[in-house]
Amino acid sequence: MDTIFDFNQNLILEDEHVLLRPLQETDVNNLLEFSINEPELWKYSLVRANGKENLENYIQIALKARTSQTEFPFVVFDKRTGKYAGSTRFYDINFPFKTLQLGYTWYGSAFQGTGLNKHCKYLLLEFAFETLGMERVEFRADNGNERSKAAMLSIGCKVDGVLRSNMPTFESEVRRDSIVLSILRNEWFEEAKENLKRKL
To answer: Is 20 helix (H, G, I), strand (E, B) or coil?
Structure first.
């Protein structure tokens, strides 16, 4: 049976450490501190969110993609500190193929290495496989982004390969190689879910 997903719903994913809710226009105020003080967070991003104007544009692009029903962006709230931590999203959502990508993920430096990402990924993967019925969840990163690659491997992703020169980089003639990783439905239920749960 095809999954019916309401892109307009106020979808909340949470555990004792983190809460993910739909990204909103007003989240400019919650995320502006990162845009001003940590512009390096978007070093590997084609769409930057450094500075207020870029952040507003970043959020508008995300909200338009949600309206077109290809993406579902979240803002991330860290319950332990009582502060907003960053953003992530489902994108390239393809219900007929039962696939989606999980990405556009960034957290302020104070939240990196705290375990927050693993809590977020557990909630998102659980929803993708167990509520949406996905067969494959894909992840991509700049092949030069070692932090991002390590984070994806640590949550149970397997490397599919590298797409050579598959996209431009921000305001540069240099093109990016993208590493592609994924978790399959059977891998989630057989090992990835329990392995990730043990790391929470």
So the answer is: strand
